């Protein structure tokens, strides 16, 4: 969630468990040229029936539509037209044409396009925030800094372009890093516009045109983003957007010979399907996949300070975060104390509610089917795994029956071999897993198919660093689960993916080295 999703600082005060979010102040700037806004806040029933291809809003060739429902009350709120293969091919053709001239653009020109895109985002910041809250159910305390983080990602690429060595000397040769070609961007619904900003800014910085397939569940958020692309006045075809289903539009992107690389964020299963298809035309792939991230609390940590943070890290984005710290590893000798603090924290500060309310930390699942998936895992935890339920459980919280809300749930004394400890749930479900000693903690932390993020807390920075060195994860955060560096590489080991995003490592994934020898 680049998250990716920790691009802001959350300070959790242990005394009253209040959560404050500190984000960067930004200078207001208006965008250069605005496209006529199609998105209309006042109209409760929305129709998203256009794509952004070759610099214009176009009527899709695909005729099928999908109804969209509010996660808060399941009211029918919108309808989106689903693209087909023809729409995808049109978008790829536009990107291919744009790629020809864009490949020769200078870093300064690319930076100017990114500046323009950033201005457009800043101009529409509140629409980006409200769309994510209302369409997806993201909680305000999470969404506001997330959108700030998305804009900061664009700035990071602008800054990098000032000094990035697209040509370098290696031995007696000249190595030129040239754009890989047209990029297919396939992303999920849990932080749609954050992913778009991170991936598109790296692609533009590297000199690549792209075709984006967002989740069809993110149609409103996508609409605002398409309007930002239009307002940014980018070269026609540089960025194209096609709404549609994964097995139609996503499949066509995977298959199409004119796409040179796919950058995908989503589930491990779909990532494997894409990688299998991509190899046919030898596409490069960056895969940001699932996670079941361990949060190791060492025996010298101040529990009253670190446990409320740990709950926040587990329930981040209502649990719908690839980097959610869903396995809390604690010393066996302190389990009773941990249980008491975690239970009180969850019951006092993390009860689900309306995501628009600035005090609410846990919102609904994006859809009914995601709600049912979370419920099924809570059932598995209780009935199949026989885990000890500390708080929460099956069903909806009182007063929130109309929406896709699960109870903020914690299982304790969980065995790491249980399904709830091994499988990604993607909802507000935390597993507390006791360990015997530090070596046992490391073994449990690494006993997972995933390797996206990990967390360590200790009174001693040296101890935390020593444990971090032993953890198999693309990013390890020590002594602050919300620490963030948007230049640091982000990505997964093992089944959490292939490749890295953000900063220097991120841009290199869109470049092909060419050695000129002699
Ligand atoms: P998903 O089912 O894998 O879908 C992701 C995207 O892939 C969607 O746009 C989807 O389209 C598309 N897709 C589905 N089948 C496809 C196919 N055969 N070919 C090409 N594209 C296809 O993921 P999700 O359920 O939306 O999102 C949750 C998952 O994303 C979780 O596993 C989470 O861990 C992961 N995630 C990872 C990161 C990270 O950075 N590592 C960040 C956030 C989320 P449809 O919308 O039509 O299904
Ligand atoms: Mg899906």
What is the CATH level 1 assignment of the largest domain?
A: Alpha Beta
- Count of strand segments: 23
Q: Which small molecules are bound?
A: NADP nicotinamide-adenine-dinucleotide phosphate, magnesium ion
Q: Radius of gyration from the CA trace?
A: 22 Å
Cα distance spanning the termini: 44 Å
Walkthrough of the structure:
This protein is α/β, with parallel strands linked by helices. It has two domains: 18-289 and 496-516, 3-Layer(aba) Sandwich (Aldehyde Dehydrogenase, Chain A, domain 1), CATH 3.40.605.10; 294-485, Aldehyde Dehydrogenase, Chain A, domain 2 (3-Layer(aba) Sandwich). It has helices spanning 85-102, 107-123, 125-136, 140-161, 192-206, 219-232, 246-255, 268-278, 303-314, 335-349, 368-384, 419-422, 438-446, 461-470, 503-508; strands at 9-12, 19-22, 46-48, 51-53, 56-58, 65-69, 76-81, 167-170, 173-179, 183-186, 210-213, 239-241, 261-265, 284-288, 294-297, 327-331, 388-391, 409-412, 429-435, 453-457, 475-478, 497-498, 511-516. A seven-stranded mixed beta sheet has the order 17-18-19-16-15-20-21, sandwiched between helices. The protein has a six-stranded mixed beta sheet with strand order 12-11-10-13-14-22, sandwiched between helices. Helix 2 crosses helix 6 (219-232), helix 3 (125-136) packs across helix 4 (140-161) and helix 4 (140-161) packs parallel to helix 5. The radius of gyration is 22 Å and the shape is globular. The protein starts with 8 loop residues before the first strand and ends with a strand. NADP nicotinamide-adenine-dinucleotide phosphate binds at residues 1, 3-4, 186-190, 213, 215-216, 245-247, 250-251, 254, 265-267, 270, 273-274, 288-291, 322, 424, 426, 452, 492, 497.
């Amino acid at each position: 969630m680049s998250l990716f999703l920790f691009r802001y600082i959350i300070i959790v005060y242990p005394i009253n468990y209040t959560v404050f979010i500190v984000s960067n102040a930004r200078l207001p700037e208006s965008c250069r040229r605005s496209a006529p806004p199609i998105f209309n806040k006042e109209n409760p029933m929305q129709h998203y029936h256009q794509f952004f291809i070759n610099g214009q809003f176009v009527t899709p060739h695909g005729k099928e539509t999908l109804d969209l429902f509010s996660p808060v009350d399941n009211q029918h709120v919108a309808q989106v037209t689903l693209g087909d293969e023809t729409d995808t091919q049109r978008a790829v053709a536009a990107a291919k044409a744009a790629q020809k001239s864009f490949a020769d653009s200078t870093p300064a020109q690319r930076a100017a396009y990114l500046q323009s895109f950033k201005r457009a985002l800043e101009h529409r910041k509140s629409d980006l925030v409200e769309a994510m809250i209302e369409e997806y159910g993201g909680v305000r305390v999470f969404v506001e800094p997330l959108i700030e983080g998305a804009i900061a990602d664009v700035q990071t690429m602008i800054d990098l372009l000032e000094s990035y060595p697209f040509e370098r000397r290696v031995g007696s040769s000249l190595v030129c890093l040239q754009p890989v070609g047209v990029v297919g961007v396939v992303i999920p619904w849990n932080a749609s516009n954050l992913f778009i900003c991170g991936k598109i800014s790296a692609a533009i910085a590297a000199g690549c045109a792209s075709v984006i397939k967002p989740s069809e569940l993110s149609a409103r958020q996508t609409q605002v983003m398409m309007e930002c692309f239009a307002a940014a006045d980018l070269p026609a075809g540089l960025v194209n957007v096609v709404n549609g289903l994964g097995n139609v539009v996503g499949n066509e992107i995977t298959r199409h010979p004119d796409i040179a690389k796919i950058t995908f964020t989503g589930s491990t299963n779909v990532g494997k399907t894409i990688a299998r298809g991509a190899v046919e035309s030898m596409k490069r792939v960056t895969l940001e996949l699932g996670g079941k991230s361990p949060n190791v609390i060492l025996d010298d940590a101040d529990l009253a300070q670190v446990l409320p943070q740990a709950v926040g890290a587990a329930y981040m984005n209502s649990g719908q975060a690839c980097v959610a710290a869903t396995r809390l590893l604690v010393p066996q000798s302190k389990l009773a104390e941990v249980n008491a603090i975690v239970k009180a924290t969850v019951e006092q500060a993390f009860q689900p509610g309306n995501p628009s309310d600035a005090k609410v930390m846990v919102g609904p699942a994006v859809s009914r089917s995601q709600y049912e998936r979370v419920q099924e895992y809570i059932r598995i935890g209780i009935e199949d795994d026989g885990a000890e339920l500390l708080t929460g459980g099956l069903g909806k919280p009182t007063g929130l029956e109309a929406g896709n809300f699960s109870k903020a749930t914690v299982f304790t004394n969980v065995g790491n071999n249980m399904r709830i400890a091994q499988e990604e749930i993607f909802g507000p479900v935390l597993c507390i897993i006791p360990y015997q000693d530090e070596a046992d903690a490391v073994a449990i932390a690494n006993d997972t198919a995933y390797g996206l993020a990990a967390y360590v807390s200790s009174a001693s920075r040296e101890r935390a660093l020593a444990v971090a060195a032993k953890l198999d994860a693309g990013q390890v955060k020590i002594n602050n689960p919300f620490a963030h560096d948007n230049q640091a590489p982000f990505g997964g080991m093992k089944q959490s993916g292939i490749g890295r995003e953000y900063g220097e490592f991120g841009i290199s994934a869109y470049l092909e080295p060419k050695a000129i020898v002699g």
